[in-house]
Write the structure tokens for this entry.
Amino acid sequence: MPATPTETPDDAADGTRLPAYEATLRATHRAFGRELRRAARALPLGPRDTVLDVPCGDGFYSAGLARRLFPQGKVVAADLSDAFLARARRRFARLTRVAPTEFVKADVYRLPFDPAAFDAVWCARSLISLDDPAVALAEVRRVTRPGGVVGVLEDDEYHRVLVNWPVDLELAVQGATAAAARAKYGSATKLAPGRRMLKLFRSAGLTPRGKKTVAADRAAPFPPAVVGFLLRHLRETRDFVAPHLLPEHLAAFDRYADPAAPDGVFRRPDAELTFLTTLFLARR
Ligand SMILES: C[S@@+](CC[C@H](N)C(=O)[O-])C[C@H]1O[C@@H](n2cnc3c(N)ncnc32)[C@H](O)[C@@H]1O
């Protein structure tokens, strides 16, 4: 679901703050980490490459990149948020056999790096947080060397979490999601940056080089990480779409999302979930 401006204290108790969506991001990494890492491994890299991960968030992908580039490559993990950078640093404090990694506070619209400084740039699940993704990608292009690669991992809110709930409920929720997005952002497509990637790459002066969608299939009984993700996902979806759902659809949604309901997603023996995310590749 879209980020909210509300912030929650970071558990470092160091005064820095993380956005409310951080917990959902972490739940997603826990539930689908294997597949998310697989998607990241599709970024073509050489062993001596220098790679920028921006925005790096809590360093989930920077860690994978640094493992791949050990011992000859280098990673720069950049984000505007001190709290996220602190999280990323703490993640790395536990790691061994990773390439040298630098953490840099940086605005993606004005990166503090020389032109063509990187062999590759990785940008995961962040375009929705940015007001002007085309301008951000143009800046990403500036710091990528000619011939270098840009990998953008993006979801599409309408196709991200697929569950085998009733078709009528699915259609009602999709319609309400589009209506809520129009009301909040002025466009239903804001929540589907993946649908605009070709256009965004081209407008940034990058040449699209294909995409790879990764599916994470899970079936009941769901492991605790998937239950944790689903609880958050359904709660956030409900908050977003409820004002745009008919009462009977909202009641059906609540039955489906009720952890105690025998025919709800948490207790149905035939419940299934597929999580989709797509890596979009481009060359400078
Ligand atoms: C949804 S998180 C994704 C983080 C990470 N890529 C991941 O997938 O785990 C979005 C990130 O964008 C960062 N961010 C937002 N605006 C930014 C900006 N203008 N420059 C750099 N980072 C920014 C936030 O601090 C946050 O870490």
Notes: The chain is about 40% helix and 25% strand. The CA atoms of residues 34 and 195 lie 24 Å apart.
